Amino acid sequence: MRENNKPTAITSVLHEKRVFPPTKGFSSRAHIKSLAQYRKLYNESIKSPDRFWAKQAKNELTWFKPWKKVLQWKEPFVRWFVGGQLNVSHNCLDRWLDTLTANKAALIWEGEPATDGKPGEERVLTYKQLHREVCRFANVLKRNGVHKGDRVLIYLPMVPEAAIAMLGCARIGAVHSVVFGGFSAQSVADRVFDSQAKLIVTADGGFRRGTVIPLKKNVDEALTLKAANGDLLAKSVEKVIVLRRANNEVHIAEGRDVWWHRELDYVDAECAAERMDSEAPLFILYTSGSTGKPKGILHTTGGYLLGVKLTHKYVFDIQDADVYWCTADVGWVTGHSYVVYGPLANGATSLMYEGAPNWPEPDRFWRIVAKYGVTVLYTAPTAIRAFMKWGTEWPGKHDLSSLRLLGTVGEPINPEAWIWYHETIGGKRCPIVDTWWQTETGGIMITPLPGAIATKPGSATLPFFGVVPEVVDDEGKPVPRNTGGKLVIRKPWPSMLRGIWGDPRRYKEVYWSEVKRSYFTGDGCRQDADGYYWIVGRIDDVLNVAGHRIGTAEVESALVSNQKVAEAAVVGRPDELKGQALVAFVTLKSGVKPDHAIRDELRQHVAKEIGPVARPDDIRFAETLPKTRSGKIMRRLLKQIASGTEIKGDTTTLEDFSVLAKLAQSEE
Ligand code: PRX
Question: How far apart are the first and last CA of the chain?
């Protein structure tokens, strides 16, 4: 952390007093029916973790070979179910083939409506069909030289093939790294370089709000980008598999690029699942941290799968007849854990939607809920705030009575949005599970269990089984109730990250050095008198913009990579819709005049370097940036200026006082 910022409390949350107990009707049918039952299981999971997790792993997963030891903990490195062997794809697919689930819908996919007004395409894949497609694609991967342990980068739109590609990798023991389709060619190249991926799976294009995102073109460009030493960043890539989706024109490089559909002609549907070590890498997912370089978060096989299966089952109280819809893209961890792995490991029906919530009209989600009879909906607070803004007439047009449970993830939810979600979407009958977790935690960590735990709008409530959170001060000592502090996790849990790909030192430094003998989450938190956790947001240099995690340093390094920029500092300011907005303070090189054109150019530049998600909302120019005597940019001050709040605190360490006044005055 560059500065020790105290978390800023959201006042409306501090005064929130409403409590929503689980309804009798819900609890009586739920997996976990009462607070007492939750507490009993939770206590077991903490007091005898080995016994608790051994029982869960045995009941929930199919193992090729049993483990010798449940947990091996040598801080900060953990191993779960040591010596055990299993396969994730086998547990998500083959496991169901001899059961009634075989012919149940595994994936329901709804495509984006076409621009000519035609309704979106629709596809349903049963467990049997999905198994077949995964086996065929796994054979395509093998045919193209992918072996156990090789890395495969997946850069696809939200189509069933994204799940097929992930499961295909898991089946043969290849390690996938999914890159969100909204990221740029540069981001693809950087991730290939870091993971040394051998193969890329992409599509010609993907649809988004009626336009085509040229994914293959981005891959082509990524393959030409060079590192500072002149070497190609993506030189490890030998093959590119291209899915035909948008029918846009693409270049096919002979010998390197192959079409997905053509490759299928050469393979059969027989592909045994590899026996994987419980600790074998399953995937790497890049996420932003407080440095300029995204971190490759590594998740492994047994612990991850058990964690996502169990949380999915209990948090969403999954029942056989549910139509479960998590609206996240597979490019984020939520898509990995709660669109693909968690639901399929539970034999559930998982709905995937390709497009945007307001395309072609703002009732798109509600149309889908009504069309498929969605029972469980899991989405982000930003989406909920957007729906509130668009008006109740849109959900009002559709029958939402199939819904029985709602969830949120990705950022703090303000009580107003929570209540709106509860009343307007949930018809006051659906419990809301506000789930706190991170890319690093693999699965949900702090959350209500809907039949057991009373909810409070804005609080993620209590820890899931095996999770020991604590709110501590700068010295690592627990703070009293109702006091803000840092959120840490005291004990290892099965789905926790195993490291940062290729960088064990950084893993130790980032997560295990801030607070002794604890995993540091980077979030600020407060526990109330009932022991409920209220997450206030990041206290490091990571922003949460519309539920997307963005490192300020990453945006800064993108800005300074522009020839005209001398220096840049990026901070967040509160935003009614997106939670936080990105504000960049930029010092231009001498001779370059600040004007609208350069502002646009810089915003575009960041979109090109990282992706449109990281494009600054505001750019403010300054002659110099305020710094401490040791040369650190005073972010606290910039944050106050960006938010338009008064400048408070000690400013005497400023090198240049005049700069303050200028910054405060500089207009957007
Ligand atoms: O700040 C927290 C916020 O999102 C961060 C994790 O982001 P990411 O790794 O991209 O994963 C997002 C999906 C799990 C956290 O450090 N966050 C996530 N869920 C919540 C939340 N903040 C408050 N309440 C939540 N329910």
Answer: 28
DSSP class per residue in 140-208:
HHHHTT--TT-EEEEE--SSHHHHHHHHHHHHHTPEEEE--TTS-HHHHHHHHHHHT-SEEEEES-EEE
Q: What is the fold, at CATH topology level, of the domain defined by 35-46+54-60+85-465?
A: Rossmann fold (3.40.50)
Name the nearest CA neighbour of 620 among 637, 610, 294, 632: 637
Instruction: State whether the beta carbon of 411 lies less than 6 angstroms from ligand 1.
Output: yes
* Calpha distance 341→343 (Å, rounded): 6
Tokens of 205: 């294009």
Q: Would you list the domain boundaries of the chain?
A: 35-46+54-60+85-465, 544-665
Place of tokens 């029958």: 399
Burial state string for 441-455 with b = 16 or more CB within 10 A and e = fewer than 16: bbbbbbbbbbbbbeb
Q: 153: closest CA among 184, 183, 196, 182?
A: 196
**Structure tokens, 618:** 């505001």
| Cα(443) to centroid(ligand 1), Å | 11
> Which of 407, 580, 507, 427 lies closest to 75, judged by CA?
507
Q: Is 399 exposed, middle or buried (0-12, 13-18, 19+ CB in 10 A)?
A: exposed
Question: Is the distance from the beta carbon of residue 460 to the nearest atom of ligand 1 less than 6 Å?
Answer: yes
Low-confidence ranges of the chain (pLDDT < 50): 1-11, 667-668
How, if at all, do strands 69-74 and 77-82 pair?
Answer: antiparallel
Predicted confidence (pLDDT) per residue in 272-328, tens digit: 999 999 999 999 999 988 777 899 999 999 999 999 999 999 999 999 999 999 999
Contact 555, 184 (CB under 8 A): no
Q: Where are the beta strands (DSSP E) in 395-431?
A: 405-409
Per-residue tokens: 582: 């990105």
- Assess contact for 433 and 316: CB atoms under 8 A: yes
Q: Which helix (H) or strand (E) holds 86?
A: strand 85-86
DSSP conformation class of 459: -
Residue with tokens 């169901």: 96
Q: 403-418, pLDDT tens digit by residue?
A: 999 999 999 999 999 9
Whether residue 434 has its Cβ less than 6 Å from ligand 1: yes
CA nearest ligand 1 atom 18, residue: 410
The whole-angstrom distance between residue 530's C-alpha and the CA centroid of its chain comes to: 29
3-state percent helix, strand, coil for the chain, nearest multiple of 5 = 30, 25, 45
The answer to whether the predicted template modeling score (pTM) of the entire model surpasses 0.85 is yes
Instruction: Write down the residue that tokens 């300011």 correspond to.
Output: 573
User: Which residues contact residue 561 at a Cβ distance below 8 angstroms, ignoring those fewer than 6 apart?
Assistant: 605, 609
Distance 464 CA to ligand 1 centre (A): 15
CATH 3.30.300.30 for domain 544-665: yes
CA of 535 to the centre of ligand 1 (A): 9
Model pLDDT for residues 541-559, shown as the tens digit of each residue: 899 998 888 989 899 989 9
Sheet holding 579-588: strands in order across? 565-575, 579-588, 618-621
Does ligand 1 have an atom closer than 6 angstroms to the CB of 409? yes
How far are the Cα atoms of 185, 415, 612, 615, 617 from residue 607, in angstroms, in the given order? 10, 32, 4, 5, 11
